[in-house]
Design brief:
alpha+beta, Butyryl-Coa Dehydrogenase, subunit A, domain 1, Butyryl-CoA Dehydrogenase, subunit A, domain 2, Butyryl-CoA Dehydrogenase, subunit A, domain 3, 3 domains, four-stranded mixed beta sheet, four-stranded antiparallel beta sheet, 12 helices, 10 strands, globular, binds flavin-adenine dinucleotide, flavoprotein, Acyl-CoA_Oxase/DH_mid-dom_sf, Acyl-CoA_DH_CS, AcylCo_DH/oxidase_C, FAD
């Protein structure tokens, strides 16, 4: 942690924020959940997206109009947590719009923003974030999708990297596990332009889905999820399609993930809360051994544990989001907090949902039961946007970065730490 003053962290929501969350949960149940059945499982549900746009909810995850204000991380977390509680499909549809459009909002040109962001925020255009590849998942910096300067790929006349040739590139390679693919209207694609090895040789592009050479196929997942593989066969892109500077694409991807990681935690907290509430209700009415399940201490203590861990995860998520929102000077340890929040919340949700299944017994495993659904949904967030092991590595790296900063001056640090003890 830094020695700079701590960020403003909300440990309690305001009455307005609580009322908004309650309203969102009701919207999820009454307005959005009925639309889920209008779509096909594992496909993009455009009816649901348009409803999210009409309700003004997408505009909280994607800036939809000039001046393209930065998305508020805490708003995003409250939205995702509340929708996850009552309509996880709507939650996921909303989050994916934000993730896919994030790089456009961050570094897009005026033309790119005007063309795509209002349509994404209205639920009229579908966005996707294409980083992962068959041989580059956790090690995203190893991505291999090539962006070759036009002149070089046509007749090998040579180009000079990202700015060489005719000023355009051809994209060749494969992206996989891409949410909303192959149905999205555009993809933010991270490709190797080769300014430097590893993460420094990556450039981001905005690729409309109708570009020649771009094709895709859906993948069938444990929990129905609009997701697929994309094949790029010399797909043409121009300077106007570039997102940000050549060689700066990996930083664009990481900034988007820093915003979204705490909100993946919020999604997990929403699911955990739904599992907990179902368990409280069930244990309070299920007859057992002359009483009800909650009368058994083993069960009531399990409920207490589930509630405590869920609340701890929620607070870490809110703190990470507040740190992001108030990070004017860059001293809030945003990456560290985002990783901690995502790690704790997704692992906690897995534990809570599993414990809820145990409390419900066989009924929870019947197809169509809330917990059967949550049991399948809760697994993926421990893998995507950085697996739990990757978050731990990231956290440890950030902790040592802080230590390195103070290495030069251990005495000052000692004096600083002991100031209060010596001068009460
Ligand atoms: C539902 C879902 C939606 C997704 N949506 C998108 C999307 O929209 N866009 C996108 O680009 N990608 C998306 N992904 C892909 C996701 O980001 C990758 O699955 C993730 O980065 C992990 O990569 P991998 O699956 O190739 O696993 P691998 O990288 O092969 O890792 C497998 C396992 O190895 C271990 N491991 C890996 N690295 C380390 C390490 N450094 N230290 C310790 N252990 C390690 C972990 O246990 C990890 O789970 C999605 C995935 C899922 C499941």
């Amino acid at each position: 942690m830094t020695t700079t003053p701590p960020p403003t962290t909300s440990f309690a929501l305001t009455p307005e924020q609580r009322a908004w969350c309650a309203q969102l949960r009701t919207l999820g149940t009454e307005r959005l959940a009925p639309l889920v059945t209008e779509g096909e499982a594992g496909r993009v549900n455009r009816t649901l997206l348009r409803a999210l746009g009409e309700l003004g909810l997408l505009a909280r995850a994607v800036p939809g109009a000039p001046p393209w204000r930065r998305v508020a991380a805490l708003d995003l977390c409250l939205l995702r947590e509340s929708l996850a509680y009552s309509c996880p499909e709507a939650e996921t549809a909303l989050a994916l719009q934000g993730l896919g459009a994030g790089p456009v909002a961050d570094v897009g040109t005026a033309e790119q923003r005007a063309r795509w962001l209002p349509a994404v925020a209205a639920g009229e255009a579908v966005a996707a974030f294409a980083l992962s590849e068959p041989d580059a998942g956790s090690d995203a910096a190893a991505l291999a999708l090539r962006a070759e300067p036009e002149a070089r790929s046509r007749n090998d006349m040579g180009g000079t990297g990202a700015t060489g040739g005719t000023g355009g590139w051809r994209l060749t390679g494969t992206k996989t596990w891409i949410s909303n693919a192959p149905w999205a209207d555009f993809y933010t694609v991270f490709a190797r332009t080769g300014e430097a090895p590893g993460s420094r040789g990556v450039t981001a592009f905005l690729v409309p889905a109708d570009r020649p050479g771009l094709s895709g196929r859906p993948l069938d997942m444990l929990a129905p999820h609009a997701l697929g593989t994309l094949t790029f066969d010399a797909v043409p892109v121009t300077r106007a399609d570039r997102l940000g500077e050549p060689g700066a694409g990996f930083r664009v991807a990481m900034r988007t993930l820093n915003l979204f990681r705490p909100s993946v935690g919020a999604f997990a907290v929403g699911m955990a809360q739904a599992a907990l509430d179902a368990s409280l209700a069930h244990a309070g009415r299920r007859p057992a051994f002359g009483g009800v399940l909650r009368d058994l201490q083993a069960v009531s203590h399990q409920l207490a544990e589930m509630a405590t861990r869920t609340e701890a995860a929620r607070l870490l998520v809110y703190a990470a989001a507040c740190a992001y929102d108030s990070d004017e000077a860059g001293g809030n340890d945003v990456a560290l907090r985002a990783a901690m929040a995502k790690l704790l919340a997704t692992e906690t949700a897995q534990y809570v949902v599993d414990a809820a299944v145990q409390i419900h017994g066989a009924a929870a495993l019947q197809r169509g039961h809330l917990l059967e659904h949550l049991y399948r949904e809760v697994r993926a967030p421990r893998i995507y946007e950085g697996a739990s092991e990757v978050q731990r590595t990231l956290i440890a790296k950030e902790l040592y970065k802080e230590k390195e900063k103070h290495k030069e001056k251990p005495e000052e640090l000692y004096k600083e730490t002991n100031k209060e003890a010596r001068h009460p």
